Amino acid sequence: MTSQIATLLAVLLFPGGLFALVLGLALKGADRRVAARLQGRVGPPLIQPFFDLIKLGFKRTMVPTEASETVFLAAPLVGSVAMLISAALIPIAGVYAPDTELGNLLVLLYLLAVPGICLMLAGSASGSPYGAIGFSREMALMLAYEGPIVLIVAAVGMRTGMAEGHWVTFSLTEIVRYQQVHGWFLFDPIMWPAVAAFAFFYPANLGIVPFDIPEAETEVLEGPLLEYSGPALGLFKVMSALKAVVVLGLGIALFLPLPFTGPLAFVGWLVEIVVLMLVGVTALRVSAGRMRIDQAFVFFLKWPLLLAIASVAAVALAAGGAS
Amino acid sequence: MTADPQLSKVSTIPVGPLHVALEEPMYFRIDVDGEDVTGVDINAGHVHRGVEYLTMKRTMTQNVVLTERICSLCSNSHPETFVMAAEVIAGITIPDRAAYLRVVAAEVKRVASHLFNVAILAHLTGYEMLFMHVMQVREVAQDLKETVFGNRMDLAAMCIGGVRYNLDAEMTAYMLGALDKLEPEVQSIIKTYKTNGSILRRTRGVGVIAKDEAIAVGCVGPVARAAGIDYDVRVVAPYAAYDKLRVPVPVMKDGDVWSRAMVRLYEVAHSIQILRECLKDMPGGAINLGERPDIPAGRAVAKCEAPRGELIYYLKTNGEEIPERVKWRVPSFMNWDALHFMFKGAKIADIAIIVNSIDPCVSCTER
Predict the structure, then answer these.
(1) Is residue B85 part of a domain?
(2) A80 touches chain B (CB under 8 A)
């Protein structure tokens, strides 16, 4: 019973739920502010995303007459809930380890695909031609980046699992614990292809330039989100804020968990996630132009997939050489 | 309008009349098959304001002010061509200094207009940092306009028989300083557009129009020059002081979006040179006739090279204050049809980039 309450609290309060939401919105605020400064603008206040969310909460959700109402309204809800659960699946080194009852890395991979699918559903249910274009673009992009992420996770799992004496592990807690003892995978040459492939994966998953193709404002007017308003749009904002925390948290857990415990570990994790957001997301999205969907698709089939396959091969060969 | 998520079916999407990627209201009905554009239908008429009719209700002097308000980005070219037509009818030769001052006003506007278009290209490819950078560089030209002419967009520089502003030594020194500031920035922007992967992969080979097609639809301005047509009114039929100045004409042969952007950027660099030459060679003397000249009955055609290309004015007067007929043909009208060729084989993502590449001035075209 107590473990169930603890799990519920993990999903609703910390590290999922309220904490992840506040952190995600704060990250978005910092992102907007720093992006503005990099472009020579002043930018909105740091808490602007909170204001936006509150404002959207008080507005009315318009459902287009051509839309399929159930799917149209359910899509943002399902996406946000999937991200809430995912946030509770991400371990924070030395602070929080997810309950194995809740799920492992494989469950997380499935949950990570949910927001993309929800955007596709939203786009096709909205009845707008731009939504339909957004749907097809999101689908092409997902086909391109889902393959590499599975291979990246497999490579990390195999590296840890083989070192620990079994074939492969899908426990993020174990992966984090292994790195706390043996050092970051970021500095492990055998893992570099996986790190590089992950560096291509997360911008596509977070939908930022150069891979914000499904929502490209100057091309398809935010595609799937075009017809959304009020609380439903707010839920999509919640989903996207939570996703930033989940994806960056996953990156930290896979490649650079801190070897501390207690408050220092928590503060260190916060610093890591903010630095990743500003260097990896903000700096990238202001300093590149958008790709076309056909270019992005070919790009993903070429580099990240190749790197991900190379990383699995490297891990397997390294293990074979050691035994 | 159908919304069909199935990739194989052809569906129609509306772009415009109000669309974030378009600066002015235009309406395109685009048939798409997946991401490919299969057909385009261009509709105009959303910003018709009846300016042409209004010119026949105003006096000649009032029309100089009115024509300046047809469009913001070529706001100097319209009154310039209008007064040129009036001067042909009245047989006026403008003072030498006025001719040079007209060139100064026109070239400053050209710099600002071209930089604006090139900045928007970066914005449309999602490259916001470059967009903000080019707009910041353009701000030097805007400050120059505000300091010298008192306005950021409408310069109010032209009058029949000359110009309405003068440059003293202090202003000339300020302008030279601003040009010195502008030139290295423009050179670095040219280098960026030449080498940056984000720009190149979205603009090379996109929206191509071949030279013979460009001649067939009568393209003008940077669109024609990017397709290999060496045509610039400033060289072919010099007006104002252009016959005394060296005007290089950049010509490229690919005819794609990138070539058009590069032609504009090279023209900005050349305009800065022309401005320097003007300020150096500026003769003294009067800047206009000193009094409002009477325009006799007559007909005239005048043309000039606006930032978007050849602008032609037809003016018919009957000896009274109010002109009998004023008619103009704007460069965007000629380049409009070229869009049909450029959209061949385009993707949805290219639509806004291609439309922007002809630098359409809708309020000029629909007046």
Answers:
(1) yes
(2) no
